[in-house]
Amino acid sequence: WKCLKAEGSYTSSILWGAIGFVKIFSISSIYFPLLFGLLVGLVLPIISWLLWKKFPNIKWLALIHFPIILVATNSIPPAPASEYTTWFLVGFIFNFILYRYAHAWWEKYAYVFSAAMSCGVAICGFIIFFMLQNNNIEFPEWWGTGGPTRDGCPLEIANYSGYVVTD
After folding, report:
1. For residues 157 and 165, is the Cβ–Cβ distance under 8 A?
2. Is 48 helix (H, G, I), strand (E, B) or coil?
């Protein structure tokens, strides 16, 4: 129930605006090795292309697109870890199993199913809002919602000495 994408954008604006690139990625910084990701992103597509040219009979080599794979990692930080297994499972079932073993069905229903899943998320959002929030029903507290602080950071409400004041 948090706006993780907005929090990520806020954190990025603080990092890039207030602190700056030089302090974050200087040679003495712990984040300096991340700059080698630029080199990896440059080299991997070339290696993939060379392998594809050398082994044209291996069909799956043409399906590897490292720029798409690496750009997709941009959405990882704001998403909870439980979403990745769902994405992978649905993607694997539809884009591998059904594509390979029920291709006619896949051609007819894959995009319809994708649209239905997206609409289902939106409809469930409305249902949850109108059934729970609109009727002053508090969302249940459990380990997944972070307890009393809602974000799983109990020290967020602590004072400067680390003492958590509870009511």
Report:
1. yes
2. helix
Residue 87 belongs to a domain: no
Full-prediction pTM beyond 0.90? no
Neighbour-count burial for 72-91, b at 16+ CB within 10 Å, e otherwise: eeeeeeeeeeeeeeeeeeee
Residue 43 has which token pair? 């080299």
Q: What are the structure tokens assigned to 71, written together?
A: 């750009």
The answer to whether position 67 is within a domain reads yes
As a whole number of angstroms, the distance between CA 157 and CA 167 comes to 11
9-64 pLDDT per residue, tens: 777 788 788 888 888 888 988 889 988 988 999 999 999 999 999 999 998 888 88
**CA dist., res. 142 & res. 140, Å (int):** 6
